[in-house]
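Tip: read the tokens left to right.
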């Protein structure tokens, strides 16, 4: 217990030492969507939200496309963007963020992500608690997806096999309910 308190105090002190972080970062995608799996990648446009649920300019909403959580953001000029709906480093919904010209801001930690590339724009985790948490993690971006209006839906291009590939690795090495380490049944 004493070690945990000491570690917390040390990281708190390090977060407020006045050390300046660079304003631009080399970021990489933080998702498991890039991992290889059993199924070949299959990019397809799939419905995410109905057009009538499209948010007002300057706001965002959440949807699901191909089993993936998607943030649909509309910038102040009315352009539509699709990004992964999980903000690094703690995975709160990006769809709760404020949309500005070219970026969306993490509602809790304050990090801004480019609507076009998903990369970090400006400081990494600049808010109060963000300074503490952000120092523990490398700056990473969010995935972006092609998006289009099609009939009564907003469609997002995703790998429809991404969820299956992620789940195919889930049971690897863990005993399942049947007691086998490979996830197969008797």
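Filled-in amino acids:
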């Amino acid at each position: 217990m004493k070690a945990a308190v000491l570690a917390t105090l040390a990281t708190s002190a390090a977060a407020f030492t006045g050390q300046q972080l660079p304003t631009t970062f080399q970021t990489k995608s933080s998702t498991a969507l890039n991992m290889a799996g059993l199924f070949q990648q299959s990019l397809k446009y799939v419905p995410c939200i109905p057009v009538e649920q499209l948010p007002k300019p300057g706001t965002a909403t959440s949807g699901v496309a191909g089993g993936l959580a998607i943030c649909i953001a509309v910038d102040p000029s009315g352009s539509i963007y699709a990004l992964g709906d999980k903000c690094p480093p703690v995975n709160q919904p990006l769809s709760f963020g404020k949309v500005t010209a070219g970026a969306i801001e993490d509602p809790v930690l304050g990090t801004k992500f480019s609507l076009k590339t998903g990369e970090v724009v400006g400081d990494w985790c600049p808010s109060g608690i963000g300074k503490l948490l952000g120092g523990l993690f490398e700056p990473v971006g969010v995935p972006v997806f092609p998006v289009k209006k099609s009939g009564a839906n907003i469609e997002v291009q995703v790998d429809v096999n991404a969820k299956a590939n992620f789940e195919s690795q889930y049971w690897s090495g863990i005993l399942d309910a049947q007691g086998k380490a490979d996830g197969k049944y008797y």
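Helices lie at 2-15, 128-134, 162-168. The CA atoms of residues 58 and 75 lie 5 Å apart.
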